[in-house]
Specification:
The chain has about 375 residues and is an alpha/beta fold. Helices cover about 30% and strands about 30% of the residues. It is built from 10 helices and 16 strands. The strands form 4 sheets. The protein has a 6-stranded mixed sheet with strand order 10-6-1-2-3-16, sandwiched between helices. It has a 5-stranded mixed sheet with strand order 13-12-11-14-15, sandwiched between helices. α4 packs across α10. The longest helix has 25 residues. It is globular and about 65 Å long.
Length: about 375
């Protein structure tokens, strides 16, 4: 099965694997809130993770073991996440009169095969019932979130963590973990208002459109902080580098509009290069939002939330708001959550903690 996707245990250790970094968050439950008792972020050597998948399991297992031991993290049961590019997630509707076993058989053995781009026997599939509704023909249905990935991918994650001496309790989708972290922010929107989320990671951006905390649409595009940094390096004749940390603290040059309605050009080639890549990302966001809105004329997207390492760019919310004609804001997953943290978390780090904190919350 898709390991522990919709069930949890009482540990509180989340491990986020990205091509650039390995992040570990250890949370402790305190009444109705949580305390971040340990946060570790270590550089991920090149080529261990490629295209969102584990490319070198033995080396990653050694790194995981080293990170946990050197930071005195004693828990062995952890949660981690798979990139959305490797996952099929669909909302489906099935008859409400089915009992639990009939529902399970229909979803896992009949419906799943309709949506998979690979054979059903090669897939790990899980699902969760979301709620009942009456369709336009007056028939009561139950809405189900179906999630699947290739079995060889989940097997690699499980075996790698086992080799590191860890038990993988939960293996879920990174966007689900982020949504869990920001659920209090999402509650300010009504059930008629959708929220677009752009999680800008190292070499990709996960785009999700969420209603009532449930993803209605998801898509991964190959544009991240690496593409922004590489473009800027080329334009400024700097040597190429994987280290995108220099983007932290940079400001997006939001192009002013003059009195004639025209936009003035940015003043230097670095700014122009940055704007070209971010403009491409804005176009992908627009395509995703338009696709969602075209499903139903009554749908509305109320706001864009920006998360991930890319959210550290100053004025990025203003840039997207101008390009998309949509209110946009950068996420601080710690400002509107029940997680207590110390001063060791820098302001520029906060927006990139959404996924790893969500994984820790999943376990706590």
């Amino acid at each position: 099965m898709f390991k522990g996707l919709f069930s949890g245990n009482k540990q509180g250790i989340g491990v986020e694997l990205t091509p650039e970094r390995i992040n570990v968050a250890e949370l402790k439950k305190q009444g109705q809130s949580y305390k971040l008792v340990n946060f570790v972020s270590e550089e991920m050597p090149e080529d261990i993770m490629q295209d969102g998948q584990i490319a070198n399991p033995p080396e990653l297992a050694d790194l995981l073991r080293s990170v946990m031991e050197s930071n005195k993290i004693k828990g062995k049961r952890v949660a981690t996440a798979i990139s959305g590019r490797d996952v099929i997630a669909r909302l489906i509707s099935v008859p409400a009169e089915l009992d639990e076993q009939e529902l399970r058989d229909m979803v896992l053995n009949q419906e799943a095969g309709l949506y998979l781009p690979f054979p059903r026997e090669e897939a790990d599939v899980d699902y969760q019932k979301l709620g009942f509704f009456v369709d336009e023909d007056g028939i009561e249905k139950v809405q189900v979130l179906l999630v699947a990935t290739r079995q060889d991918i989940t097997d690699t994650y499980i075996s790698t963590f086992q080799e590191a001496g860890l038990e993988l309790d939960v293996l879920e989708i990174s966007s689900f973990a982020l949504i869990r972290t920001i659920r209090q922010q999402l509650q300010q929107f009504s059930s008629q208002e959708a929220v677009a989320i752009a999680d800008i990671e190292f070499d990709s951006t996960e785009i999700s459109i969420v209603v009532d905390g449930v993803p209605q649409f998801s898509r991964t595009v190959p544009i991240g902080t690496y593409q922004v940094w590489q473009s800027l390096c080329r334009a400024m004749n700097m040597p190429p580098s994987r280290d995108t940390a220099s983007l932290q603290g940079m400001t997006v040059p939001v192009t002013p509009v003059d009195s004639m309605g025209s936009k003035t050009a940015p003043g230097n080639p670095g700014s122009a290069a940055m704007l070209r890549v971010l403009g491409d990302l804005a176009d992908e966001l627009r395509r995703s939002i338009d696709f969602y809105l075209n499903q139903d004329e009554n749908l509305e997207v109320a706001q864009l939330l920006i998360a991930g390492p890319g959210a550290c760019l100053g004025q990025l919310d203003e840039f997207f708001s101008q390009r998309l004609s949509l209110p946009a804001s950068q996420i601080d997953p710690l400002s509107n959550s029940s997680i207590e943290v110390g001063d060791e978390i820098e302001e520029t780090q906060r927006a990139s903690l959404g996924v790893v904190l969500g994984l820790g919350l999943r376990e706590a």
